[in-house]
Task: inverse folding
């Protein structure tokens, strides 16, 4: 019996593609999950010069900041705001003035306009802070 301990000719090794394929699929899954799908929601606002009418009737100033709402200086719950505005509205298309206070953000504007539009309000004027 004879043993060989010297160098033997091995066939050249081919690179393994399995780890590379795994990495590619992991990256694919990561970017699919990280991507934003669907439409962004926007606010439908028209310039005041085109959509605003004349202001008449009692004051309707709605101030807001950090989820808190004030109607003519009186703190009001957001859910009760349409009912509190109803007696102040001479017509359904009467202007309502929205004024942000310190600490107000875009989400506050979106939430407030959604609540008012759902109650049938069609004319809003947004003031700069």
Result:
């Amino acid at each position: 019996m004879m043993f060989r301990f010297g160098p033997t000719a091995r066939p050249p090794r081919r690179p393994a593609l399995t780890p590379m394929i795994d990495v590619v699929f992991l990256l694919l899954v990561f970017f699919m999950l990280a991507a934003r799908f669907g439409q962004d929601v926007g606010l439908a606002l028209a310039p005041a010069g085109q959509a605003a009418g004349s202001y008449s009737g009692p004051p309707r100033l709605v101030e807001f900041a950090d989820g808190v709402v004030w109607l003519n200086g009186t703190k009001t719950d957001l859910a009760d705001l349409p009912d509190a505005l109803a007696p102040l509205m001479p017509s359904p298309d009467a202007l309502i003035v929205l004024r942000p206070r310190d600490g107000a953000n875009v989400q506050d504007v979106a939430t407030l306009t959604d609540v008012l539009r759902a109650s049938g309000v069609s004319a809003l004027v947004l003031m700069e802070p």
